[in-house]
Predict the structure.
Amino acid sequence: DTEVTQTPKHLVMGMTNKKSLKCEQHMGHRAMYWYKQKAKKPPELMFVYSYEKLSINESVPSRFSPECPNSSLLNLHLHALQPEDSALYLCASSQAGFGNTIYFGEGSWLTVV
Amino acid sequence: AQSVTQLDSHVSVSEGTPVLLRCNYSSSYSPSLFWYVQHPNKGLQLLLKYTSAATLVKGINGFEAEFKKSETSFHLTKPSAHMSDAAEYFCVVSIPQTGANNLFFGTGTRLTVIP
């Protein structure tokens, strides 16, 4: 099973709201990722967790707050977002270490109004 | 430095004809290279992966890619296009990060299949 599950599939939120995106995998992967994808653009890395510790933060604004409560779950907490944050947010996972395949979820479509 | 160049932003083929999507890379490391496909409003699906075991890599749905070190290329091909192949295709190089990987994406090639 090579499945990464993301919820919700669609989210509309106001600029003062607090919401969360959730991601789950049961492949025993110890690296998990958040990517952001704007329309007609390639995905851009936001965060990397390795063995449940944040190892990469690609200069993401603090209104995005990642959390990895255990080796199967990855959350992205959202607060005080801007309309330009509207995008597809993709979660992914892989075995730790170089060269391993990264498996993606179907994404959460976020619209900030 | 790592980079990936997809030479065509849009490719249009007739159903049943061959597909060629071009990709050139540069990498400071011995590269791991991937092709991912993204259908409209969907996530990314792995088509195939090169990790130096064999230069001709076979993937899902009849796709294959050949790694040519001398040309720094990793072009994606399929002998006969199907309507379901219409999608966005990303050539990707993997670079090591602390305990994990980062995928460096090309800008994508949109494949249109004409009936």
Notes: The CA atoms of residues 29 and 97 of chain A lie 10 Å apart. The radius of gyration of chain A is 13 Å.
